[in-house]
Amino acid sequence: MKGTIINNVRPLTPALQALAAEELNETPDRIVSDLQLLKNWISQCPHLRVRTDDQFLVTFLRGCKFSLEKAKQKFDLYYTVRSHLPEVMLNRDPYDDKLRKLIRLGVGLPLPLTEKLDGPRIILIRPGAYDASVYTVADVIKISNMIQDILMNEDDNYVVAGQIGILDCANVTMAHFKQFNPSFIKKITIMSQEASPTRQKGFHFINTPRGFESVFNIFKTFINDKNKTKLYVHGSNLKSLYKVIPRRLMPTEYGGEAGSLDSVIETWEKKIISYRDYYKQEEQYGVEESKRPPANASKMNDLFYGTSGSFRKLDFD
């Protein structure tokens, strides 16, 4: 199958094709028919305004290990949660002065190296790089989703092998933590956990500040049991991190071989700008709740707002 284009799906490398077969139940001969079944279902959902190109849709099949029913649920939820987060999903013009400056801070950066040919993509997250008096966490999540759009379309390691997050808490202050409220945390957790077609292989916290544990415990209440087992807190012990993630995969500022932070930021700034038209197109997609089947509508409303009445602004003082 090497070099063979299935519909408009990019061929995987031999290493990733083997991994997809082993871990995702992928059978190249079935992709065309599975894509058509998914498209047929989309055409029968009047509430969905969505992309239907093959490369985009196959991400959901792979993310659900080719269970068509699970792919349908995740696809619907993917667009539903985006419609419920306009502060994150709208106005994503990389030429906007405020967004451009935030992009150049490099708060979230996919790193160029993977441990193996079929290794997961490593995402370095540096919340301490932004000024909490200038930017909000919604601004940061907006950039993160702009990057995710690119990875879902272009990065087969990310889609097939998954991702590993490294959250460097250096320079994080209480002002950063206070930007979160439970309602917003719930929505972004649904977005990253239930609605995302990509697989989380691990999430590592480093350079954690004093008081981190109490905040961390609040966040864990929104995370399912499966993903809780993939959380690792290293504190300032980077040797502990490097036992799991080889140091060479990190930027030079961390003693690695992935290039300087500035070079990685520059690469991603150019890539994000190249997707400007894509982001504009995305604003037309989402869900029209008035057209959703009533039973399904009630279920989705409960998912997002069923307990919101009990939510209060978190108090970290």
What does this structure look like?
The structure is a single chain. The chain is α/β, with parallel strands linked by helices. It contains 16 helices and 7 strands. The chain has helices at 14-23, 28-43, 54-63, 68-83, 86-89, 97-103, 137-154, 156-161, 174-177, 182-193, 212-220, 225-228, 238-242, 261-274, 276-282, 294-305; strands at residues 48-49, 108-110, 121-125, 163-168, 200-206, 231-235, 286-287. The strands form 2 sheets. A 5-stranded mixed sheet has the order 2-3-4-5-6. It has a two-stranded antiparallel sheet with strand order 1-7. α4 packs antiparallel against α10.
Order of helices and strands: HHEHHHHEEHHEHHEHHEHHHEH
> Count of DSSP helices?
16
- What is the helix content? 40-55%
Q: How many DSSP E strands?
A: 7
Radius of gyration: 20 Å
Structural class by secondary-structure content:
alpha/beta
Which strand-content bin applies to the residues?
Answer: 5-15%
Q: Strands across the major sheet, in which order?
A: 2-3-4-5-6
Which overall shape is indicated by the principal axes computed on the Cα atoms?
Answer: globular
Overall mean pLDDT: 90
Main sheet record: 5 strands, mixed
Low-confidence stretches: 1-5, 307-317
Cα-to-Cα separation, first versus last residue: 59 Å
Q: Which helices and strands occur, and which strands form pairs?
A:
Blueprint: H1 14-23, H2 28-43, E1 48-49, H3 54-63, H4 68-83, H5 86-89, H6 97-103, E2 108-110, E3 121-125, H7 137-154, H8 156-161, E4 163-168, H9 174-177, H10 182-193, E5 200-206, H11 212-220, H12 225-228, E6 231-235, H13 238-242, H14 261-274, H15 276-282, E7 286-287, H16 294-305
Parallel strand pairs: 3-4, 4-5, 5-6
Antiparallel strand pairs: 1-7, 2-3
Helix pairs in contact: 2-3, 4-10
